[in-house]
Amino acid sequence: MNTCPTGIHCILEISGCPFTLLDNETFVKDSIEQASQTALSTLLSLTSHKFEPQGVTALGLLAESHISIHTWPEQGYAAVDIFTCGETANPQKACKFLVKSFQAKKHTLLVVPRGQNQSQATSPMDAPQRAMETGRAGNAS
Q1: Residue 94 CB neighbours (<10 A)
Q2: pLDDT tens digits, residue range 7-17?
């Protein structure tokens, strides 16, 4: 039985970010592009929407899955979702890049293996173990 996960799903919360970065659609899209490169993934397409009076949602479709960023500039907060499959991509490297890029003062990263031992999981409480990391400025490891 294969115990390797089908993919890795990173759920990254970043806060304490400058309003101007979070409200800049071009910056958010460029950050997805650079995060994809950092993760050694293949960006297939990139789309975004700028909200009024503030906020951006951007989605990068990857050959390996996706990267999404949703920002709330008025709160200094962004929700980031990165899912990759395969043996090459490293979504944790993309998360580390985004923490620095958005100048986050704090972050929380939840790493969830996807597709691992799914036949044994009978409820959400039985799902595979999840790893979580939190950090402050200067500790984006």
Answers
A1: 29
A2: 999 999 999 99
pLDDT, position 120? 46
Q: Model's pTM, two decimal places? A: 0.84
Asked if residue 128 lies in contact with residue 116, where contact means CB atoms within 8 angstroms, the answer is yes
> If pLDDT is split at 50, 70 and 90, which confidence band does 117 have?
low
- Where are the chain's structural domains? 7-136
Which is the CATH superfamily of the domain at 7-136? S-adenosylmethionine decarboxylase (3.60.90.10)
Q: Are strands 43-50 and 56-62 parallel, antiparallel or unpaired?
A: antiparallel
Residue 66 among the catalytic residues = no
10 given a catalytic annotation: no
Choose the catalytic residue: 31, 36, 65, 101: 65
Rounded to an integer, what distance in angstroms lies between the CA atom of residue 109 and that of residue 14? Answer: 9
